[in-house]
Amino acid sequence: IPRQVIAPPTPGELRFTDLALRPDAEQEAVRIADNQARYVFDLAEAPPLRACLLRLGPEEHRLVVTFHHIATDGWSVEVFYRELAELYNTALDGNRTSAQSRTDAPQYADYAAWQRDWLQGARLDGLIRHWRGVLGDDPEPLDLPTDRPRPSTQGFRGAAVTREIGAMLVRRIRDFSRSERVTISMTTLAVFDVLLAGWSGAAEIIVGVPFAGRTRPELEGLIGCLINMVPVKVRLAGAADFRALVARVRAAVLDASVHAELPFEKLVETVVTRRRSGFLPIFQVL
User: Fold this and answer.
1) In degrees rounded to 5, what are phi and psi of residue 140?
2) Pairing of the two strands 60-67 and 49-57
3) How far out from the chain centre does Cα 58 lie?
4) Cα separation of 263 and 213, whole Å?
5) Can you tell me the distance from the alpha carbon of 41 to that of 6, in angstroms, rounded to the nearest whole number?
6) What angle, rounded to 10 degrees, do the helices at 167-180 and 184-200 form?
7) Whole-model pTM?
């Protein structure tokens, strides 16, 4: 039976629900939090976040905050919780100086204006030329085998499968990465490229990699979605062994990081000449 989804709060509202007298207060709190996460945001009308405060007992409350990804990223969530804790303690102390310093800090609108001013002219042209050279003209989709026909139109139904890696293998990966002077992410990306090449038969693999986008110290404390998806293209053909492939991955990742300022939307606009229904452009795996 579908659960009833709670109505969204009005802008600026902090909804309060008292569950203290319910024998199933803990279970009901989980249900409300789950429904909060399932409710679709209307970005044309509502703010990109909502919050509700749940009272489970005289000394126990739970604050449930749901963000739309357009307004935050993983880094921002940590900033939000840290500032929330600081402001909460400030309110208890009756000191509003700290709260005022938060409002004076750079905001996401400042970042957006800076990015528009900075990313134009010669800088923009140079980034576009670089990525056209790396990706070529309209990269072909990765042809992965599937257990059913691929639909003509891409949908959003999916699932998650989790596998644990044993501690001994993790130590071996860490030791190998240290000996090759690469990060663990580079090593595992090389393994992933080998897997995708084996499945697809492709000689070149393009994987989308999220970059934090916080290239300046003043952006580290900013709340907003600064993350940018960047393609990392690696050619597997001709690599003498796995160590040689890891070296190629290292070079590709470092090169991508240097040129990661070009927003993915702009990259698609300038590199992709033909959109294919049912496929994400440029890369299909993350």
Assistant:
1) -70, 145
2) antiparallel
3) 37
4) 10
5) 12
6) 100
7) 0.80
Length of the chain: 286
Which residues lie closer than 8 Å to 126 by C-beta, 6 or more apart? none
- State the Cα–Cα distance between residues 249 and 194, nearest whole angstrom: 11
3-state secondary structure of 5: coil
Question: Would you call 230 helix, strand, or coil by DSSP?
Answer: strand
Q: Bridge-partner residues for 235, per DSSP?
A: 204
- Using DSSP, state whether 231 is helix, strand or coil: strand
Q: Is-contact 56 24, C-beta < 8 A?
A: no
Per-residue pLDDT tens, the chain, 286 aa: give them.
Answer: 334 445 555 556 788 999 999 999 999 999 999 988 888 888 887 788 889 999 999 999 999 999 899 989 999 999 999 999 998 898 888 876 555 555 567 888 998 998 899 899 999 999 999 999 999 877 888 988 888 888 888 777 888 899 999 999 999 999 999 999 999 999 999 999 999 999 999 999 999 999 998 888 888 899 999 999 999 999 999 999 999 999 999 999 999 999 999 999 999 998 888 777 778 899 999 9
The pair of structure tokens assigned to 29 is 């709190």
Torsion angle, alpha carbons of 173, 143, 261, 137, to 10? 130
Rg of the chain over all Cα atoms, to the nearest angstrom: 23
